[in-house]
Design brief:
Chain lengths: 526, 502
């Protein structure tokens, strides 16, 4: 039906695909099959991207065929189809799905099938978006490189020897490698935004409570948030409108409507808006090429009529420390349920009495990886009697101080801006033995989780020294997600104008993983 | 099972002063569970009233049951507590397979209700005030059944079965402040306190309040100190004492046991104790120290509970008549004397009498049956009267049989035995056992003549107007007819025979 070849088809944005589907220039089956082919081509094998832990071929094609049939029949049902109906999507494997395994990147859940769908999955199904599969992640979303997945790391499509960020490296890499137009991620300390930054994609952490967490396997309940991963700012806005909204199954979900996001992404101007540079979130500790691209974005926004101001958030220096007390504390409790009693892996002790404590112990010892164990131990310690006030209690106070810093900053600026991550993608294995260096990756993203405010990362260009993507982070007050889409879309269009096309056009072509295959995907022509 | 030494209760009281404390868990009778939409129903097939939340599946979140909060506030108000305007839930972290998340979602240092009291009326009419520290909301755990062992306890069991139907059932835990000054009335107070709490929650309609089903469960803390000392002794906590009588016995036993330990010069061990109804003793459970570390922290998946003053007042306005006021009203309605009413209350049959009256019996008939027939049988059977198995309907039916003259009181008592033995309905038993008052006057008159002839002096007295002497003749007739005669009819016939106006 389509005149586009598959290579062209998979490079369309979700919004472009949606338009072509609605105009019946292309069918959902064609689009979905093109993505499945792309996954088959680039994801597997020793040098594959390994963005997916599970590919949901049959169901995705069935949903696509259903959408096509409805469109072909026309009438009220076709009219009622959601704008994104038929547009495929990948889902981070931390979000539970009926009909597909959910592993959370952990051995302890290997082979487990959820008996229920997460609320966001129900919404994707209601919108009739074919789910391509489940994407790789650091085990239980703990990590910044996807190297802590029990199923092996994901590679960065820009450089296969580098990390795709984490924990949502699978979702970001899938979108960057044109294996999916859209993906769902979760962000506890930067797990959507930092992978977005290092893969040249867009990632949005909505306001805490804007998207239901029901069915996202909890890492740190007070920090976790599901959000969109995409190649354009508009696409993220479209996806957040699908998955957002109040959910009676999540007590912490907001009742506010978040239905002006797409309109905000289409506003097209930032004239008169005040954009605040956070003094503490750039400069020292940030890679030179990251700084250069960051300053370039500031100039572009200024040129578009925004006013650039500088704000100070003096308590941000405590954010990382406080985060590494609150997050592990909640982790230690949230992950207690994985004990081999009701579901998932069960390991029996090799010898000695077969008591419940020993079965739980053997299961958890074998089922969890080192980073997960590290955080469980840290959190268990922080919550212990006698240490609670000094650790968890103090960390909660820091959290309040960070919120106050943001309040003060937003009194001076409509939106705040910073680099998303201090560096571009580092090499696989480079920081695996140095947890603290790994944790520092999230220094700029963590404050938003601590305050519950929304944060958007979009591509800011390539660092001069290594040619790897740099992310620009925008932050807004709670419930002002729309502001981020407005400013983000404007900055994106200014940057693309400068580059002469999307940044991903400059990503290297990916070789087929199968030896002797002649098919390659054309890269950008810059 | 080793037997602990005990002192006689009298000696224990002579030497020591008991201090009590109670944690009473009340299961709320909400339609659904505390944090999920699964049904809150007792007695169904195991693991059928569960959904992904109750099973602690990955990704689930709790949603607080509003009715459970309302019920908790009502309980707090009925216990004269203050209601917190803002309170939160916490997570109590511990690994045990009856708790699917391996933490219990419970209120910790921010209870919904706090600082209350309950006035307890003892059997002699004395009123004893028990201070309530707090009443907080939490979720129940699943039920473990330990299989293969001799004792039904986990020790020695081959494996354990888990039923998560109870997992997530809403609970309110009512915690008293230390109760001092009860002295030798401590066991009685213990029973009366738990009875009062049960009565209150039943009266509020927030719990089915059946102790035998575990709707109301009591943990009883006991410690002793020498008379005159202020500092408390070391306490034991007897878990899950699940009948009113058991509460009384357990407290009494623990006082006697503590006294013996202290007398021997040993320290009391701070521990939980298991109550054994068969031997009426406790055995050692697990050592419990104040340093048990549950790593409590505020539950991040729930938002704080905000109880506006308007809402609290709305709920206060819906509270039913308090049990003490109800007792006053019932006594007046029924026309019982103070002594009669106190006996009824102490025997634990006030509710049963109310039900029996509602089923159609008069107040005096209901009292006659419960106090005269059922309480004694319950004592013999060693159960609470309400647990004996006598329904209001049975009593009403029995009474109708008596009033119609079909059977007399003595026979009715035999019929009641038959009902309790499972022989059928009263009418069926009358039929089966061939119990019926002889109503043919022929044989009766023969017996009367024989009785009068046997006691001519008595007959003379009756003729002379001393009607109270008639009892001897009636007794003779009843004896001769083996109790099958209707005594009233016998009396009529005797008077007729002697030509005396009744």
């Amino acid at each position: 039906m389509t005149e586009l070849n598959n290579t062209e088809l998979i490079r369309l944005s979700a919004a472009q695909l949606a338009a072509k589907l609605a105009a019946r220039e292309v069918t959902s089956v064609e689009v979905t099959q093109a993505y499945l082919d792309r996954i088959a081509l680039v994801d597997g094998g020793a040098d594959g991207i390994h963005a997916f832990l599970h590919v949901n071929t049959e169901e995705a094609l069935a949903v696509a065929a259903e959408v096509d049939a409805i469109r072909a029949a026309g009438g009220a049902e076709a009219e009622a189809l959601h704008e994104l109906a038929g547009v495929p999507i990948a889902v981070k494997d931390l979000i539970v799905t009926i009909g597909q395994p959910t592993t959370a990147g952990s051995k302890i859940l290997e082979g487990w099938h959820s008996p229920y769908d997460a609320t966001v999955i129900k919404k994707l199904r209601a919108a009739k978006m074919p789910i391509l599969g489940k994407t790789n992640l650091d085990e239980f979303a703990m990590g910044s490189s996807t190297e802590h997945s029990a199923y092996g790391p994901t590679r960065n499509p820009w450089d296969l020897d580098r990390i795709p960020g984490g924990s949502g490296g699978g979702s970001a890499a899938a979108v960057a490698a044109f294996e999916a137009p859209l993906a769902l991620g979760t962000d506890t300390g930067g797990s959507i935004r930092q992978p977005g930054a290092v893969t040249g994609t867009v990632g949005m952490k909505p306001t805490y409570g804007a998207v239901s967490r029901y069915g996202a396997i909890a890492m740190a309940s007070s920090l976790d948030q599901i959000g969109p991963v995409s190649r354009t700012v508009l696409d993220s806005a479209l996806l957040q409108e699908v998955i957002g909204g109040h959910d009676p199954f999540d007590s912490t979900s907001l009742t506010d409507p978040f239905d002006t996001l797409v309109a905000a992404a289409k506003t097209g101007n930032v004239t008169g808006m005040k954009i605040g540079i956070i003094k503490e979130l750039h400069g020292e500790g940030y890679q030179a090429g990251v700084e250069t691209r960051f300053n370039e974005s500031l100039e572009l926004l200024k040129g578009a009529g925004a006013e650039i101001v500088e704000v100070s958030c003096p308590n941000f220096k405590y954010a990382l420390g406080a985060y590494y007390l609150i997050m592990p504390s909640e982790v230690s409790s949230n992950l207690a349920k994985f004990d081999g009693v009701r579901y998932g892996m069960r390991v029996l002790p090799k010898d000695g009495p077969m008591t419940i404590e020993r079965v739980m112990g053997a299961t958890r010892a074998a089922g969890f990886g080192d980073e997960v164990k590290r955080r469980i131990i840290l959190g268990t310690y922080a919550l212990s009697a006698g240490y609670y006030d000094a650790y968890y209690g103090s960390a909660q106070k820091v959290r309040t101080l960070i919120q106050r810093d943001f309040d003060a900053a937003f009194a001076q600026a409509d939106v705040l801006i910073s680099p998303t991550a201090p560096t571009t993608a580092f090499k696989l294995g480079e920081k695996l033995d140095d947890p603290l260096a790994m944790y520092l990756n999230d220094v700029a993203t963590i404050p938003a989780n601590m305050a519950g405010i929304p944060g958007l990362s979009l591509p800011g260009g390539l660092a001069d020294e290594d040619g790897l993507p740099v992310g620009i982070q925008l932050l807004a007050p709670a419930r002002e997600d729309a502001r981020l889409y407005r400013v983000g879309a404007v900055l994106e269009s200014l940057l693309e104008e400068k580059w002469g096309g999307p940044l991903l056009d400059r990503a290297p072509a990916l070789q087929a993983p199968v030896l002797g295959s002649s098919s390659t995907i054309a890269g950008g022509s810059n | 099972m080793s037997t602990d030494a005990i002192l006689s209760f009298e000696e224990a009281m002579e030497k020591y002063d008991p201090v009590l404390g109670f944690e009473v868990h009340v299961e709320l009778n909400t339609k659904t569970k505390m944090f999920s939409s699964a049904p809150n129903v007792f007695g169904d097939e195991p693991n059928t009233n569960v959904n992904e939340v109750d099973l602690g599946m990955p990704g689930v979140l709790p949603v607080l049951n509003k009715t459970a909060v309302e019920s908790s506030i009502k309980i707090g108000l009925a216990l004269n507590c203050k209601i917190a305007e803002y309170c939160r839930f916490a997570r109590k972290n511990y690994f045990y397979p009856d708790t699917p998340k391996n933490f219990q979602t419970s209120q910790y240092d921010e209870p919904i209700a706090y600082d209350g009291y309950l006035d307890i009326e003892l059997s002699d009419g004395t009123v004893f005030r028990v201070e309530i520290e707090r009443a907080h909301m939490e979720e129940d755990a699943g039920k473990l059944t330990h299989m293969g062992g001799a004792t039904g306890r986990i020790q020695g069991a081959d494996y354990s079965l888990v039923d998560y139907n109870r997992s997530g059932v809403p609970l309110v835990e009512i915690v008293t402040k230390p109760i001092e000054g009860a002295g030798s009335r401590a066991p009685e107070l213990a029973k009366a306190y738990v009875a009062a709490v049960r009565e209150i929650v039943k009266n509020l309609g927030v719990s089915d309040a059946k102790m035998e089903r575990g709707n109301v469960r009591c943990d009883a803390n006991v410690s002793l100190r020498p008379h005159g000392r202020e500092r408390f002794g070391i306490r034991s906590e007897t878990k899950n004492v699940n009948s009113l009588r058991a509460v009384e016995h357990a407290v009494r036993y623990e006082i006697q046991r503590h006294a013996a330990v202290l007398d021997s010069g040993q320290p009391v061990i701070q521990e939980t104790r298991h109550w054994h109804e068969d031997t009426r003793t406790t055995t050692s459970g697990r050592a419990k120290s104040d340093a048990d570390d549950y790593r409590y922290f505020p539950e991040p998946d729930l938002v704080p509970v905000l109880a506006s003053r308007e809402w609290v007042e709305e709920l206060r306005a819906t509270l039913p008549e308090p049990p003490a006021a109800r007792r006053k009203r019932l006594q007046a309605d029924w026309g019982y004397s103070d002594l009669e009413f106190r006996d009824v209350v102490n025997a634990g049959v006030m509710d049963s009498i109310e039900e029996t009256i509602a089923a159609g019996a008069s107040a005096s008939v209901a009292r006659k049956w419960w106090m005269g027939e059922i309480v004694g049988r319950a004592k013999t059977a060693d159960v609470d009267p309400s647990e004996l198995g006598v329904t209001s309907e049975t009593i009403v039916e029995l009474n109708k049989l008596v009033e119609s003259g079909k059977i007399n009181n003595k026979m009715a008592s035999q019929v009641l035995d038959g009902v309790l033995a499972g022989e059928g309905t009263p009418a069926e038993i009358v039929e089966k056992r061939g119990l019926a008052v002889v109503s043919d006057d022929g044989p009766l008159l023969e017996a009367i003549d024989a009785a009068l002839a046997a006691q001519p002096d008595v007959a003379e007295k009756i003729r002379g107007g001393k009607l109270q002497a008639i009892g001897a003749i009636v007794g003779g007739v009843m004896k001769a007819t083996r109790g099958q005669a209707d005594a009233a009819r016998v009396r009529e016939l005797i008077l007729e025979r002697l030509g005396v106006e009744g």
